[in-house]
Every structure is written in C-alpha cells, then in structure tokens.
Amino acid sequence: MSKKVMLIDGSSLIFRAFFALPNLTNADGVMTNGVYGFLTMYFRAVEEYKPDYILVAFDKKTKTFRHKEFEDYKANRDKAPNELNYQFGILKDILDSLNVKYLDIDGYEADDIVGTFSTIAKEEGLETVIITGDKDYFQLVNDKVVVFLTRKGISQMEEITVKSIEDDYGLSPKQLIDVKGLMGDKSDNIPGVDGIGEKTAIKFIKKYGSMEGLYENLDDIKGKKTKENLENSKQIAFLSKKIGTIVTNAPVGMKISELKVKEPDLDSLREKFSKYNFNKFMEKFEDTSEERKDEIEFSYSFSDDFSIIDDIEKDGVFYFKSIFEEDNYIHSNAYKIAIKTSSSKTYIYNPDEKFVEKFKKYFEADNIKKVSFDIKEDIVLFDKLGINISLPYDDTMLMHYLIDPSRSSYDLKTFSQAFLKYEVENEEDLLGKGKSKKSYKDLDSDNLGKYLASIVNAIEDSLDILTQKLEELSMYDLYKDCEIKLSKVLADMEITGFICDKNELEKIKDEVSLELGDLEKIIYELAGSEFNINSPKQLSKILFEDLKLPIIKKTKTGYSTNAQVLEKLRKKHPIIEKIERYREMYKLKSTYLESLEECIDEDGRIRSTFKQNVTATGRLSSTEPNLQNLPIRTEEGRKIRKAFKADDGKVLIDADYSQIELRVLAHLANDKKMQEAFSKDIDIHTKTASEVFSTPIDEVTKLQRSEAKAVNFGIIYGISDYGLSQNLNIPRKRAKEYIENYLDTYPEIKKYMKDIVKKAKEDGYVNTIFNRRRYVPEINSKNFNVRSFGERVALNTPIQGTAADIIKFAMINSYQNLQKAKIDAKIVLQIHDEIIIEASKKDLEKAKEILKSSMQDAVDLKVPLLVDIDSGESMYESK
C-alpha cells in the first residue's frame, strides 16, 4: 500500500470552526474556539486516515498574484475579526509542539500550497488526502487525490472523489475550473459572465468540453442575451478561469520527506493544552502508557462494605456524588451514592437505612470536608434521607463557574475537558436523550460503576487545580464566603417551596378567558371575518391586505406584525389596540396561569430550581418554573401574585433594596453629588432631573423625573442616544443632550465610564468589588457592533454584578440570622433585588427586623443601603 500525505487548509478549517462554535475562552479570557475546532477536526482526520506525511497550509496576509491579475479579487470580504486573527498564532504554536509542519508563502494562497504538494505527491506515487471547507479544491481531485470537505460545522466530512464529481456534475474535476470561469464566485468576488449561473455553466461545459470549446462554437448558442453576454465577457471569463485555477508549482521550498509525521513534544504540548483548557486532547498521546491506563481504570465496588469510614476519619475529607432517576432532582430520590477518599477506591451505595446509619454523622460533621460537583443537588436529595449536609464542603462546579462564567453549561464532561487529562462522560452520553433516553436502572453494573467512579475521581483530581486557580484570580474568598454558602440557602428554598393557590389561579384564568372571548368577538367584527389571531400570517393578511393598513416592516415570509409594528399602527385603526390587549391576555393565560398550575406539588407548593451558575454577572436565575419573571407591569399580571401565599398562621415578608444599582454606581464612581443625595435620602431621580434640566428641586415635574430616571438607569446599561430616544419617544438629538448634560452633571461617573472601558480593553475582563470576574473578549473587536456590545458589558457588569453579589451576601446573612434567632421563618423566593420570606405571624416583627438589618448590613459601601419592607398574606399584598 502506498504511503499517504494529508494536506490541510488551515485557514479554511480555523475560520469554519470560529464561526461554527460558541465563544470558548480559557481561564485567562483568551478566545480559543477556532483553535479548539481545528484540533477537533485535525485529530479526527489523523485517526481516520493515518497519514505518513502532514502539512497545514495557511493564507498569507498579503496580496497574491491574483490581485495583480484582478485588483478587486476578494475585495468584498470583510476583514477577519481580531478574535480570530490572534488564534492563528495560538494554533501555529500548538502545531510546533505537535511537530507538524505548516507553511504560508508570500503572493500565494493555502490552496496553491496544497495544489503544489498534491502534484508532487502524485509524481512520487503517494496518495493524498486534502482536508478543507472550500469546494475550489475539487479541481485537484484525481486517482491519487481525494478531498474531504467539512460539513455541518465541524462534525462531518464528505468524501469527494473523481466518481462523486462525475455523479454530481457530470464533469471531470478539471472541467470545474471552466464552470467557475463562466459562473464566477461571489465569495471571492470573481466576476464570471453576467447571467450565467452554475446550472447553465455546467450545461455548456458538458456540451462543449471546455470554455475554449464553448467560445469556438459561440454561434450555436441560441439565447440572444446569453450569447451577447458571452461575447462581451470573453476576456473576463478567461480571467475568472485563470484566477480560479489553483497553482500546482508554487515555490514551496520544501520536500515531501520533510513532512513526515513525528512524535510530538509531550511536555510542551501538555503545557500549552493546559494553558488553553485543551486537556482532553492529551488523552490521544497518553492513552497507550501504563501510567495512563492506571489513571483511567478507576476501581470501584457495589457493596455494603463501610471500611471507607476509617479513611474518612483519617483523611478528614471525602469525595462524593449522588445520582437520581427523574428529570429534576427536586422531585426525585437518590438512586446511588458514590464515595471515595484519596486512599480508597470508589464505593457505590444504595441510599438505604444502613447507609444513613453509617454516614449521617460524617455528612453533618463540621470537622470533615465533603467535596462534590453541584452540591446543591446533593443537599436536596440527602434532605429526603434525613441527612443535613453541613459545611465545610466544596463544589467543583461552582469553582468552574467562577473561573469561566460565560459558559452555556457546566456538566462533568466540559468540566473534565477543561481541567483534567481524561474526559468524563456526562449523563447524556451515558443515557441518551429525548424519547430514547435510558434510565440508570437500565445500565449494567459495570457501565454504571465506571461512570460513578470517573465522576468522584474527577472531583478529587480537580479540587486542588481549581482552588489554586481561584486563588490566582483572587476569587477564592468570593467562592468561600459567598457562592459555597449560598448553595445551602438555595437548597433550603428548593426544599421549602412556595405555596401557590390553584383555586386563585383558576379564578384569574376564568377572568382572563372571559376577556379573551370578548376580545375575539370585537376583533372579528372589526376585521370583517374570523381568523386565527395568534397566526402572524393570517393577522398580516387582515391588517395589510383586507384593512389596507400601511406596511411598516417586511420579512422573508410576508409582513411583520410584531409589537413594535403594532405600536406604530395603534392610531391607524381601533383593531390594533384590541389585538395588543388580546396578545397580552393570551400570554398571561398560556405562559403563566396554565404553566404554573402544572408545577404545583401535592402539598400545594411550587418548587422552582434556583441556579447560581447561569449568568455571567453573577445574578441568580429561576427555572421550572421561572418565579423571578412573574408579570408586574399590568394589574392583571400582578393579580397572579395573589396566588402565591403564606401558609395558615403565617405571613409573607417582602424586602426590596432601594435603587441598589445606582448606589453601587455612586460607590464605584466615587461621585460626590450622587453620594450626597443617597446619604441625605434625597430622591435620586428628582435630584438628577433638577441638575440635568437646571430646575429647582421643588419645581421638578413628573415628566422630568421620569426622563431623569430613564437616564439614570440607562447609564448603568451603557445606553446610547438612540436607545434613550426610543425609550422616551423623543428626538435622538434631545436624547443625546440629556446624556451629555447628565455626564457633565456627574463628572466622576463620566470618568469612571471612560476608565472602566479602557481598563477592560487592556485586561480583557472586568471585576465586581468582590472580585467576581467577567471576560469581555468583544471589547477589542474591529466590528463596531460587537465592540459596542463589549463596552456595554464592561460598563454594566461591575454594577449589576456587584448588586448581585450584595443580594447573595444578604441572603446568606438573612438565612443564618433567622436560624440563630430560632424563629419560624424561611426564605421562599429571591427576585433580583428583593428577598421574600415566609414567617409565622407571632414572629412577624422579629423576622422583619432580622431581614431588614441583614440586608442593610450585608456590605459596607460609601452610601447607605436602604431596604423597603412590607408584609401580607400574599405576594400581592406584601409588595
């Protein structure tokens, strides 16, 4: 069998990976998605095709001979974003450690390098595999050259052979150059012949064999316009063919023998993969070693052997994880529990009475550390066993979240890929998903045992790495004092739940359904016919064809009927207001009333899942259902809060920070005017209106205060003059004046905004006052929109993130102080800046006092933290 050469278009693959994958960053905020995707495709190709020689070709960032032939070659292409450009250097650095040759040449492109080496390889009797995302390479295919074209992001490759080209096009690979000469290539700005597309070009080349053959028989062309275009564009057509032809004799200055596959520099590779969180790739080089086999063949046993307790007592720390059967741990029971120590194998137990009897004291001990991944799950599950998991404990998932807060998920697989030399399967890999998802009970004991052993070993192996990283980033205190303690508070909230009165929901739903029925009749009458009001297509026909209303916005499928369009049409016809009201009521019914009913447990309580690892700013989120998003803007929406009640003999207490984000801004910017207003308890919006509009404070109008409020909060989110003009429905020029006057009024805020953006550009990240870090790779983008987004993130995150940290500390304080006071009161909900507790009526005043002081004393700022507090039988009454 002849030896094989693998030629890779590095520019094509890294470009495809960059746009196919989400923003991946390492712990230092360096974007790595392009490199990660390239390496994924590279290793897959190497394993599948087992080449003897490898070369990665790159485009050079200089003009080529094609630009000399045609100045506008690729002139329509946008410059590659900076976030991609610097990844080329990272990739080349890793290729050096892999001992893989790469090449770029002045005046030539990657495909010319590949074309030249594929030609040399054929002359030497070698087979060639080309890996690319570019169809231009099809012209190189022959009996010794095969192209593998990347498809569907980075996950699939399609084999292109002489036969497949003949089957698909009815042409030889070389004839595809003629097709390109005729049809051109918009992506490369190659003009071709006007009016000739791929279908016509293929037809001509099939019939005449080549462009030369076509032009020799031009008189045979029947279409007058086509013939005319061909005559007028002959020179351009042959120029297009020349530009589109891959060079096969570029000055590569290298022999095939120099591309021979070599062993990588493992030490250098390990260092680089660790730096960029690519540890999963090291498996490919270490799997064959005896040491590696020992690492991944984790020992375990299913037994009633409790000898591990001796190791727990000796070590003072153990690693564990529980698994459950249902989709949501809150409504499930533990199925198996895996435990290990540094000196023991993994023991897998059934969560029975014997387990509780033996381990309860160790999970509740204050002198033994427990380490898990997503320990909040375990706290909730163990509560059903009568075990109260107590501090000290560590959560490697929360550690990962703080280090890399912009990830879309934090499962064990991505976790192990980032920090370990081996990869742990996640639940989806093991059980599947959707209708075909298996149960843990369906697994044989060997697969289940290996899975659980890999989990607890990964937890153990990563703890020191994560701890060190948090210390390096100055975030260990935030983890220890805030996030890890908060997991206990959130678990208790999930266990407790919040009473939701089904009868009250039904009552509100009946009222809404009645109004929806009345609205339907009125809308049908105004429209002149019945139709599906919820169908944008049918509504579009009624508004713009039947009622002849002016078209505001076109879409691919017709005319838009979104909220912004309806708002602009509101005064044009009475039907619009009724449709807006119908949509509002329909959403209330379907999104809230009906879905909330389905979430009520048998004891009448809703148990939402509270997540602390979702938002990059540190804000908490609530899911299944989302209780942080209950409607409040309309009276009908607010009525839903009547259903959320305190138990018999109890009352709800609702405490809300007053303008916390503006207070944080005053602290961060050290703005004396704003600090003075807060210290003297002057209404900040009235104060701002007075300053911005040069109006005595006692003469500020409601409109001026409202506009000042919009500016105050807009500044926090980096609002533009356009955004403010839309919010206030004022001319953009006036909105710009408002912002300029505001920044002149508060010069320290203006300086702070400028400084924080500058620092973010230099560092690549921003911090809260508690050192929570958020990376902002977008801030140095050459793309204006991307860069503007990055600047808004840089402005907003320290403010919103600090406010989120404060509410977390307040929750911890409130939870601990309520427990110390030994009163009947529990936190049942947190909504952004407010905390809601359920307390017995006899403890009402004491609970209010504790909650208010816990929130106001949560942290020390340069301005006081004020809390508005109220109580009532329901959320409706307590707010």
UniProtKB/TrEMBL annotation:
Catalysis performed (reactions):
DNA(n) + a 2'-deoxyribonucleoside 5'-triphosphate = DNA(n+1) + diphosphate
The 5'-3' exonuclease domain covers 3-262
Print the keywords alphabetically: DNA damage, DNA repair, DNA replication, DNA-binding, DNA-directed DNA polymerase, Exonuclease, Hydrolase, Nuclease, Nucleotidyltransferase, Transferase
Per UniProt, what is one GO molecular function of this protein?
Answer: 5'-3' exonuclease activity
Keyword NADP listed: no
According to the record's subunit comment, the protein's assembly and interactions are: Single-chain monomer with multiple functions.
Protein name (record): DNA polymerase I
Taxonomic lineage per UniProt?
A: Bacteria, Bacillati, Bacillota, Tissierellia, Tissierellales
Q: Which family does it belong to?
A: Belongs to the DNA polymerase type-A family.
Q: Source gene?
A: polA
Q: Name one Pfam family in it.
A: 5_3_exonuc_N
Q: Which residues form the 3'-5' exonuclease domain?
A: 296-471
EC numbers, comma separated: 2.7.7.7
Q: Which biological process terms from the Gene Ontology are attached to this UniProt entry?
A: DNA-templated DNA replication; double-strand break repair
State the PANTHER family in the record. Answer: DNA POLYMERASE I, DNA POLYMERASE NU
Residue ranges of every copy of the DNA-directed DNA polymerase family A palm domain listed in the record: 637-843
Q: Main EC class of this protein?
A: transferase
